[in-house]
Write the structure tokens for this entry.
Amino acid sequence: MPDQFAAALAKLRDQLKIFGKDPASFPNAVATMFMYITEDKSETERVLSETLTALLNRPVDQLRERLLVGSPEVCAETLAAYKTVGVQRVFVWPIKDAIEQVRTFQQKVAPRVDR
């Protein structure tokens, strides 16, 4: 979740300062964020409830907030929330149809996220 990332990043920056490092020069990323982009709400729910809850052993609501699963708009909003708290990079992992998912991400999600 973005708020948890923000808290961890703040702690990291504090530690970097203690060791005489410039926090601004230290890169960060979220690795790895599962991704499945679809306009079909029932497919979104199936991927979350059947595939990801079994794989990650987490509640659906928690996954919905943390992962890029859903419409391009929802995925862009999720990425924007992470960007707002200081995330510089997100490494995505398409759940299935990897090439098509990356293509969809590039065409429909990336343009919606302010770079």
